[in-house]
Amino acid sequence: MAWFRRRSDPFVLVDVLEPSPAPAEERAEQRAALRRIAAEAVILQDEAESVIAGIRARQSLGHLAPRAGPVVRRFFALRDRLPPRCDDPDDEQVRAFLDVTFHHHAMALATALEFCAVEWRSPEIARQVAAMEGLGAPARRLDEVYASLAAG
User: Fold this and answer.
1) pLDDT tens digits, residue range 9-37?
2) In the 3-class helix/strand/coil scheme, how is the chain assigned residue by residue?
């Protein structure tokens, strides 16, 4: 009969770690994420500008609000999807621009909707509504930034 004895040394557990991506791969992933996020933002800004045009045309708030609310929320969600920082300085500059632009677009659309709701109270607000031209220079710059990301 064989006697077995228990080993005195404890088991050693080893975690198997996936190799971290090379810096070049990580930069490429960050750039691809920026490109995807910017592509969605360009589509959203078209809808935002359409809603602003509806506000300027004095369309019903009941028609505009259900369109505007999801766009505002989505701009804030896109900000949350941005990488916390980018390793490449050029990509970091793009990331920072996108962050500020998404906040601008969300707030501009929300403010336009609020103006639509209260324009009857003040002739000055009515003049502001009549003067709305869309999202302005930040929207044009977003188009340019997306074009440069899409180009490579």
Assistant:
1) 665 555 666 655 668 888 999 999 999 99
2) CCCCCCCCCCCCCCCCCCCCCCHHHHHHHHHHHHHHHHHHHHHHHHHHHHHHHHHHCCCCHHHHHHHHHHHHHHHHHHHHHCCCCCCCHHHHHHHHHHHHHHHHHHHHHHHHHHHHHHHHHCHHHHHHHHHCCCCCHHHHHHHHHHHHHHHC
For residue 51, is it within any domain? Answer: yes
Decide if 135 is inside a domain: yes
The answer to whether the predicted template modeling score (pTM) of the entire model surpasses 0.85 is no
